[in-house]
Amino acid sequence: MEKIAIIGAGVSGLTCARLLSGKYKVKVFEKDSRPGGLIKCERVNGSLYHLCGGHVFNSKRQDVLKWFWSLFDRDREFLKANRNSVVFMQDGNIVEYPVENHAYQFKEDMLQSFIKDLVQMARQGEVYPSNFEEFLKTRFGETLYKAYFQPYNEKIWDCDLKQIPLSWLEGKLPMPTLEEIIYNNIKKVEEKSFVHSSFWYEKSGGSQLIANRLAEGLDITYGAEVRNITHMGKGWTVEGTRFDKVIFCGNLKALPQILEGVEVGNAADFISGLAYHGTTTCFCEIDRNPYSWCYLPSREYKSHRIICTGNFSPDNNAPGVSTGTIEFTDQISEDEIRQNLARIPLQPKYITSHFNKFTYPIQDSETRANIRHLKEQLEPYGLYLTGRFADWEYYNMDAAMGVAMDLCKNIFS
Asked: If you ran DSSP here, which 8-state letter would residue 236 be given?
């Protein structure tokens, strides 16, 4: 039986390990003390804290759904919820999300300006944007761009929106036509095309339940930061142990330093230039509210959204409190967090905070081609890449599962 090493016990690594165990002898190396990667959760003062965001599950891929529900009791272990998200606009108005479907909720002056934009867009006809900024302006108009899309996205990405290629954001943004925007406002149509417009969420334990379940029965060595992957003959050694193949689900930036025995040309140069953002999450008590996500375009504070994780399950809140996770791009000190909280909606009260250095991979126009070329160089040797920071793709949990499933089916079936 062939031996396979999997580097990383996040969603991608755990998915690969579960799919391949039994057919192969699989060993997982995880540098942390528990599984989960970006979906880890922990209890703080009796409430559930998502250390990075607020992870929920759904998928448009039937194979992902079938596999996932083979591991869980949907009725006993999960709740089904509809997304109830709003935007706290800079003018003080609260508008349902997505904003372009709810123009009838705008204040009068903004509504009139938005209508003028729609007329101008109709006269202009079809346009073909080449970057994120152009897309936002031509798809939603100058009014919404300045009031919401520009300030919100600049807070998330902390870069010139012209630098963001559209290919990277495919499937992650609303892509309504002008006709759909007008129709949705007249008919007051709710947004149902997003994967997570409805979602399942764990009754207890949050997304850590998913990580723990995926990890059950697997051979995982925790506290094992891999510092050496060496190609030898027809196989590999990982930290001195021999394997036939390796699936790397870690951070691509670490690969040039730990990979030996394979020449990959100029890959180290493009890998060192890969851009990314981290996230500081602040776990807070917040005012009771009916929301799931609250988007924050205002430039009065640095946070870009509140994830009302306390509303996802009754078990997420300690008795008598309502909690949520407030996100900031990159690292921010506790003192600065507390200063920001005084200006953020829902009167958040600081409980604790956590910084993840790597949460959002940032692509340029050459990233995908470079990584595809790197994979073509590595795969003949039996080294495979998958995962958010191995592929340098902005995967949600279900997308990470799907890509890992594709790898296992195409390479190992």
From this structure: E
Token duo for residue 396: 């949600």
Exposed/middle/buried for 3, CB within 10 Å: 0-12, 13-18, 19+?
middle
DSSP element (H, E) containing 118: helix 108-124
Q: CA-CA distance, 356 to 227, in Å (whole number)?
A: 21
**Separation of CA 400 from chain center:** 10
Q: How far apart are CA 410 and CA 413, in angstroms?
A: 6
- How far is C-alpha 169 from the chain's CA centre? 12
**Nearest Cα to 198, choosing from 106, 71, 81?**
81
- Residue 173, helix vs strand vs coil: coil
Q: Above pLDDT 90, what percent of the chain? A: 85
Residue 360 has pLDDT above 50, yes or no: yes
Position 173 scores a pLDDT of 65
pLDDT the model gives residue 195: 45
Residue type, 180: E
Burial-class residue 358 by CB neighbours within 10 Å (0-12, 13-18, 19+): middle
CB-CB contact of 58 with 397 (8 Å): no
What stretches of 249-394 adopt beta strand conformation (E)?
259-260, 275-285, 293-295, 305-307, 323-329, 349-362, 383-385
Reference 249, options 26, 25, 82; nearest CA is 26
Q: Report the candidate in 252, 255, 215, 216 with the shortest Cα–Cα distance to residue 238.
A: 255
Q: Is the pLDDT of residue 171 over 70?
A: no
Closest by CA to 301, choosing from 285, 321, 280, 275, is 280
Q: Is 206 helix (H, G, I), strand (E, B) or coil?
A: coil
The whole-model pTM stands at 0.94
pLDDT at 196: 57
Residue 277 structure tokens: 């953002």
Strand pairing class (383-385; 245-248): parallel
Phi and psi at 317, nearest 5°, equal -110, 135
